Amino acid sequence: MEPILTIGIPRETYNPWERRAPLTPHQVQDLLQDNRLAVAVQPSARRIFSDQEYQQAGAVIEEDLGSKVDVIMGVKRPISVVPDKTYLFFSHTIKGQPENMALLQECLDKNVQLFDYERITEFHEASGRNKRLVSFGRFAGIAGTMDSFHSLGRKLLFTHGASTPFISFPPAIMHDSLDDAKDRLVRLGERVRYEGIPFHEPIVVAVTGKGGCVHNGSMEVLQMLPHEIVPVQDLPALFEQHQYGGTQYKIHVVVVGIDDVFQRCNGDYDRQDFQNNPSEYRSLFAKRVAPYAHAIVNCAYWDARFPRLLTKRQMKRLYEDGNQRCDCIH
Predict the structure, then answer these.
(1) pLDDT in tens, 294-315
(2) Residue 275 shares a structural domain with residue 313
(3) How far is CA 112 from CA 12, 88, 115, 165, 228, in A?
(4) Tens digits of per-residue pLDDT, 107-126?
(5) Pick from 26, 148, 226, 294: most CB atoms within 10 A?
(6) Do 99 and 163 belong together in one domain?
């Protein structure tokens, strides 16, 4: 029986570091249990899964997806699209991002049916809003936090001349698996615990998006290191009272909730009011958190109705005022 639908997996072209794939070989194998489906994979030496793994799962390795497939399923947005095809990818256009409007127009001009992952939603009666079904989750928090460690190590070395255990921790892209990453995190934690961090002040990592899936993934990583949870309101005292000398043996983690950093312009924070009237609120993150944080792992979703957590102007002002801690953000 000839397949009636062929799914194509393109090589990712958005940037040279992109190794992700929309479907694993195991998922391809599951799909092909339905003999009405076929899968074609564009060859890539960069992808985390090899071409051979996809072949063994039953896929065909095919350079020319345009003429051979019905649906092209990627992760990031492509450089260009093939006319009259159905595409699935993160287009990053739903907030009107100007850098991606040309791609959206190309989809219209070429009669492309686009399923943007961000727009695959389900209505929830309790909240009265649509909830995304495809979104960043636990693994985004894990990967972003590991990348923060890598950036923090370079920051402390090049800006402060401090060679810390973080300098040798590789970014997420350099790990072969989650188990490999966890093994390295265990070793990093042991180095922090026994060798210490040669630095003159507490190392603070701020994590936003309290209670969300991405936040929980980030905390899963941070809790593998010697750490202390510090409330936002205790940050000034932490820096005033610390007595670390030249070495410390833990990091300080600040869990940032919405009520910690947003305030009504003419009153206090109220959760429901914040959701209904976000323009009436301002962010106090630049005052309460940013001056004390060496790394910020942003795990909160944002859209244009809400005030920005931290603006470029605020970051520039902090830097110009002599505060050079906060320039490692993921």
Answers:
(1) 999 999 877 778 889 898 898 8
(2) yes
(3) 18, 10, 10, 49, 51
(4) 999 999 999 988 888 887 77
(5) 148
(6) no
